[in-house]
């Protein structure tokens, strides 16, 4: 298990939840899910798809200083400023020296929420027992254990006020099932809601992708797109509109454009620095 380094993480479900004491609750961070293999002399960082990210995060080599056994940790790599865009930029870097310089200016933190190996397989142990093992490891500048809360409803309200991504509910007695999406791990995302104009669309096999925009200084700025099926009421409404010129000032790609007269409510996770919507849906 440790030597093969091919574990895929247990995944979260996004389903309705009734807050209760059968769960532990943690803040959901906006970063890169990672499985980290650590010994006293070496570290290997794998993404949720088992891609090797070790060279992308050289500062995390410091985690080797806190272990004296072979360990496998599950967690989230986040930037110090907790901005997903900072992580994305890091992943695009190619040169090792550039990456090291970037790491000094924009370091990351490994938020660890599980340990699934400590000289032996721990996946068959209940979550509470795995947490006790994890608690033996001290927090450092680069390795921080995820804080556990008992009141999920109160935590979620706090997360919404702070504008964080959401929370995770984990059944206390759940085992660890690699590469499995389980109802024993549930995510509740803190979605934002706003209204945007439809400035055009792109046809696809199952329906259309709506081109969304917002007016700033009387100009329409493209902010993203969402797909709607042929059974959605918006499908017929949009296709009934006359084709027009492109009203977007920042979108020059393909599309069938209409006058931005239809305004719809959209849910999304956040806006990027360039005002694009992350994970929009209706």
Number of domains: 2
Question: What spatial form do the alpha-carbon principal axes imply?
Answer: globular
> How far is it from the N-terminal to the C-terminal residue, by CA?
42 Å
What Rg do the Cα atoms give?
22 Å
Structural class: alpha+beta
Instruction: Write the CATH architecture name of the largest domain.
Output: 2-Layer Sandwich
Mean pLDDT: 93
Give the quaternary arrangement of the chains. single chain
CATH fold call of the largest domain: D-amino Acid Aminotransferase, Chain A, domain 1
The low-confidence runs, each spanning 5 or more residues with pLDDT under 50, are none
Number of strand segments:
16
Q: Biggest sheet, open or closed, and with what strands and sense? A: 5 strands, mixed
Number of helices: 5
Helix fraction bin:
10-25%
Strand proportion: 35-45%
Written account of the structure:
This protein has 282 residues and is an alpha+beta fold. It has two domains: 179 residues, D-amino Acid Aminotransferase, Chain A, domain 1 (2-Layer Sandwich); 87 residues, Nucleic acid-binding proteins (OB fold (Dihydrolipoamide Acetyltransferase, E2P), Beta Barrel), CATH 2.40.50.140. Helices cover 16% and strands 37% of the residues. The strands form four sheets. Strands 4-3-5-6-7 form a five-stranded mixed sheet. The two termini are 42 Å apart. The model has no long low-confidence stretch (mean pLDDT 93).
Short description:
It contains five helices and 16 strands.
Main features:
282 residues, 16% helix, 2 domains, OB fold (Dihydrolipoamide Acetyltransferase, E2P), five-stranded antiparallel sheet, five-stranded mixed sheet, alpha+beta
């Amino acid at each position: 298990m440790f030597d093969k380094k091919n574990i895929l993480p247990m995944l979260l479900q996004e389903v309705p939840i009734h807050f209760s004491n059968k769960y532990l609750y943690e803040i959901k961070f906006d970063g890169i899910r990672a499985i980290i293999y650590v010994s006293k002399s070496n570290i290997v960082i794998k993404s949720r798809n088992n891609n090797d990210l070790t060279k992308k995060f050289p500062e995390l080599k410091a985690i080797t200083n806190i272990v004296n056994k072979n360990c496998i940790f599950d967690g989230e790599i986040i930037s110090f400023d907790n901005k997903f865009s900072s992580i994305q930029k890091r992943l695009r870097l190619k040169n090792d020296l550039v990456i090291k310089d970037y790491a000094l200016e924009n370091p990351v933190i490994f938020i660890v929420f599980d340990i699934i190996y400590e000289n032996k397989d721990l996946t068959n142990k209940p979550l509470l027992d795995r947490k006790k093992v994890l608690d033996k490891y001290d927090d450092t500048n680069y390795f921080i254990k995820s804080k556990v809360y008992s009141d999920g409803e109160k935590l979620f309200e706090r997360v919404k006020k702070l504008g964080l991504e959401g929370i995770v509910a984990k059944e206390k007695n759940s085992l660890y099932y690699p590469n499995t999406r389980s109802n024993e791990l549930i995510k509740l995302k803190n979605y934002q809601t706003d209204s945007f104009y439809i400035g055009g669309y792109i046809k696809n096999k199952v329906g259309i992708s709506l081109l969304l925009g917002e007016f700033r200084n009387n100009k329409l700025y493209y902010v993203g797109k969402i797909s709607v099926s042929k059974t959605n009421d918006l499908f017929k409404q949009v296709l009934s509109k006359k084709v027009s010129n492109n009203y977007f000032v920042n979108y020059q790609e393909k599309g069938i454009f209409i006058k931005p007269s239809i305004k719809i409510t959209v849910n999304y996770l956040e806006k990027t620095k360039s005002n694009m919507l992350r994970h929009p849906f209706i």
